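FIELD: query
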Amino acid sequence: MNRAGSASIDITPPLGLTIQAATHSHPAEIIRDPLEANALYLAGPDASVVLVNCDLAGMEPDMVVAIRDAAGSAAGLDPRSIIITCTHTHGGPVMMPTNRYSRPDKAYHAQLRANLVEVVKRACAAAQPVRLAWGVGHAPLGYNRRVCFADGSHAMHGDAHRADFTGLEGPDDHRHIALFVNDVAGKTIAVVYNNTSHPTTFYGGNCFSADFPGAVRKQLRSAIEPGLAVLFLNGAQGDICMIDLLADQPHAESQDRKIARLADLAAGETLRLLYEAHYRNDAIIKHIWTELKVDVRLPAPEHLVWARKILAEADKLEDKANVQWDVLRAHGADLLDRAYGTNPVDHLPLHAIRIGDLGLATVPCELYCQFGLDIKRRSPAPLTAIVGLADGSHGYCPTMAGILGGGYSGEPIFWTRLAENAGYKLVDEGCRMLHELWR
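FIELD: result
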């Protein structure tokens, strides 16, 4: 019989820390709802794995390595069996260097490391015999946000009601997958759900918030079990947003109404799948990982000249709370050149996990949605979930259409640094790994 354990821990920062946002550097004045890390330890005869899900925008790779090494040592596990994921809420503290004038808080990062080590230890210590179930449904939590125009340009969050609008660049994915973990008495100890969205309700706001995943967690705990571990594994969401840009009034919805709508959709579909669940005592559990070497795109020399001129002018400004998009792009280009200019190569950690009929393919980036659909189409698993922002964040991974269309997430900056073929190599490798698990 399989064994599993789960745990949750509060990772809410103190007020006054800056909120993660590329064009804003505002401090948090209130806590709208707490940030959490939820962990699930899952073990079978052939493998064990720990999924840690954090209410954060993402984590730099070096930080993830340090945390998984410390957690592995503390829990007596192979560190590579610990996979740290992020929901990608934009209502959390600064974790990544997307804003030149927002610095991560070292004290918070140290406390976060201790918290994540602790939640892994608790999940492993709580291990007990369990039964597993999984299912798939439909919940429209995200929509494609890359808008195309007649002149061949593409824009993130562009105006789809312009006269020269020619369609959306890519697809979206409304498949809703859930995994349920019950003890032998039938009590649910963990729920994992997977969908493709982009929790940005409070981007640039004044509050810490887990966004709609926090509201989903609250609903599921109310309906199923107080203290239930709930993990939201976000999908291939690099070109996805939370609003339908083709709607008549896409921006008319209030923040509270948006949270309620998305939470009701996700929690409701998860509960429906729970009601219909068929549990297994002996689901196959397997796990493999690798690192994929990919090239990095560098900014052109003339673009760097432009970028550093923009930054020199911006650095002289007294008010840096609201960074303009030119400064954002310039900062990203400068950072990219400084980090990778002498060695334009990156290494992407990839994992494939089999849990019965469910396959998980993890990627350490904001993968464009088409790539996620490609992996699902080629997967041998009856049911496949893409898990983004896993094992560190390496930025956006756009399709060739996204690169040719340009604009934010298309041009080479630090968090859109992967070469043009990176996503296609990632799809090939992810599918190879899934096929290996199903042989």
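FIELD: remark
The chain has nine helices and 21 strands.
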